[in-house]
Amino acid sequence: MSVERIRQMFVDSIETKVQAAEVLPEVIEAAGQRMVESLLNGGKILTCGNGGSAGDAQHFSSELLNRFERERPALPAVALTTDSSTVTSIANDYSYNEIFSKQIRALGNAGDVLLAISTSGNSANVIQAVQAAHDRDMTVVALTGREGGEMANLYSAGDVEIRVPAKVTARIQEVHLLVIHALCDYIDQQLFGGE
Ligand SMILES: O=C(CO)[C@@H](O)[C@H](O)[C@H](O)[C@H](O)COP(=O)(O)O
Ligand SMILES: [Zn+2]
User: Fold this and answer.
1) In what order do the strands lie in the sheet containing 45-48?
2) pLDDT-based confidence at residue 96 (cuts at 50, 70, 90)
3) What does this protein do (predicted)?
């Protein structure tokens, strides 16, 4: 029974990726374009998310700051999940909902991009991050799932939502990681040429 259950997880994950491949490539390209424009203009990419999505936010920023698949110059990105002193003090003194938005108000500049990751689109701290990014004239790229959640009501012209067509958090996250690698590949191709 458990082996069958494990096998079914692989099947479900593969099917979710096949469905995502039908609808997401053009949207991922649009998101990659926003990121490349920002980087070419001296901007940077801030990332945030909770739980597994915090890991995804850090995964993306480390691939920009260090490298993805090839040798190339370091690219500017900051994961807003990693500074435990800042995160715990904002949560302690103000509210957990402000842990990302307060950092964005300090670090975000016009033309920067926020990569906001939430499988439900309903995490209050990610919602407040999107609002803070707009206040700073930043562009938002959102990685979401399900029906897009409350975040779906917040986007401005120029923002890009990459919404995975799935309902289970883990399956959505598995596609988010693939999208993150597709964005890294797009950025490297556009900035440093074909390989
Ligand atoms: O990784 C997982 C589940 O696969 C969890 O840690 C998950 O990320 C957490 O429950 C998050 O708090 C969910 O937040 P969100 O995706 O709805 O914004
Ligand atoms: Zn997980």
Assistant:
1) 77-79, 45-48, 113-117, 139-144, 160-163
2) very high
3) Catalyzes the isomerization of sedoheptulose 7-phosphate in D-glycero-D-manno-heptose 7-phosphate.
